[in-house]
Amino acid sequence: MAFLMHLLVCVFGMGSWVTINGLWVELPLLVMELPEGWYLPSYLTVVIQLANIGPLLVTLLHHFRPSCLSEVPIIFTLLGVGTVTCIIFAFLWNMTSWVLDGHHSIAFLVLTFFLALVDCTSSVTFLPFMSRLPTYYLTTFFVGEGLSGLLPALVALAQGSGLTTCVNVTEISDSVPSPVPTRETDIAQGVPRALVSALPGMEAPLSHLESRYLPAHFSPLVFFLLLS
Fold first, then answer.
1. What is the DSSP annotation of 67-81?
2. What DSSP designation does 191 have?
3. Which of 22, 79, 136, 158 would give a disulfide with 152, using CB separation of 3.0 to 4.6 Å?
């Protein structure tokens, strides 16, 4: 019975930040599909910080109306909203909308706000609830909270998120090289390349290495469904 209680408390702690941690480890796949590209981490940071309005409201209610707020219904609401939002997120994460001057991931950012609202508010609701249990369960709770980052990381490793490989790419130069064979070094890539001797009027092929992402073992849809 004691082991089951510790297990349930650990799972309870894992629900605190599992979805936001899952977003961060999934970034290598998300930035390739969404129009924001590598600006996406900046948008995520802003949205997550805006979601701190949740714990602020809970703190103000505890201070000014301490009797009207109970942790139990809030926790059930947070867990329900988080689960439903994560399921919706799995199907709508790559939906874009035309806003102002181009396509933007409005659905992604709005759903991220609700996920962050749940996770941020859990910091000021889960711990007060844990005060109802014996103090030795608090260690198990923090173990579960730490595992909320490990679980999505293991899923991302199984998914193969962000794995890259180097491929040799040959391009045709627009300029006509000198007929004298020369050897140059591509400083930007750090890869030496040979300029092939060519007759006037002919183009010389140039080779360099490019980093390419490998296809994931399963899609972000499956990833977010597993987290939910």
1. GG--HHHHHHHHHHH
2. E
3. 22
pTM beyond 0.85: the answer is no
Burial 102-112 (b: 16+ CB within 10 A, else e): eebbebbbebb
Token reading at 175: 């300029």
**How far, in whole angstroms, is CA 6 from its chain's centroid?**
29
For the chain, the maximum distance between any two Cα atoms, rounded to a whole number of angstroms, is 88
Strands (E), the chain: 97-99, 102-104, 164-172, 182-186, 191-195, 205-213
Asked if the structure places residue 17 within a domain, the reply is yes
Mean pLDDT, each 10-residue run in order, the chain (228 residues)? 88 90 90 89 95 92 80 90 93 88 90 94 89 90 91 89 76 55 43 47 67 77 87
Q: The domain containing residue 71 runs over which residues?
A: 1-163+217-227
